[in-house]
Amino acid sequence: MILYIHAGKDHKGPEGEALLKRALFHYAETKRGLSADEAERAFGGVRVLRTAYGKPYFAAGKETDCGDSETACGGFGPEGRVFFSVSHSGGYWVCLMADEEVGVDIQEVRTVCALHMAERFFTSAEAETVRASEPEFFRIWVRKEAYIKYTGTGLSQGLATFSVLPGQDGLIRTGNAVIRDIARDTEMFGMPGAYCSASGKEIEGITEI
Fold first, then answer.
1. What is the pTM of this model?
2. Dist CA 102 CA 196 (whole Å)
3. How many structural domains are present in the chain?
4. CATH number at residue 9
5. CB-based contact 41:48 (threshold 8 Å)
6. Which helix (H) or strand (E) holds 48?
7. What is the pairing mode between strands 205-208 and 2-7?
């Protein structure tokens, strides 16, 4: 599981797909042990499509609609699919790439009516957490965004229908997934971030592209 970071606002449209391809080739070489030529043969034809809920995924072969089938999603290579999630905020673009479904989110801290939004969109316990410490608002927000990006349901799943507060063991478990905060010492973009996966694995490396 590798987190890719790009500083700049050239991450939309063709530029965004180019960043994804750069991250994918690096992932193939680093995690799959492929040479540059092998990575090109395995993933050169991969395209980015979206599910019915808007979740992006890698697809190979002729263009088809992924629909709601998780098994149809992913990039195709000699060792199976590569999954990814993208977020951008405050002049930074990030992409989490892994061998399993993932979700990632970052959010620039800005002035908002934190308590009002928490009471509207969060669980009652989360709203109380924000009441006690308003800076916690964005930490909770990115956790929720990371989770719905992981599930692929987007905002069709109400943010108040699940909690992202840590359990007694310190882990954040929601549904069948584990959510982790992006460690403060790796937040080179200086803003809250979180990521989600079923395995609960930690990010193995961070690469600027």
1. 0.87
2. 5
3. 1
4. 3.90.470.20
5. no
6. strand 47-50
7. parallel
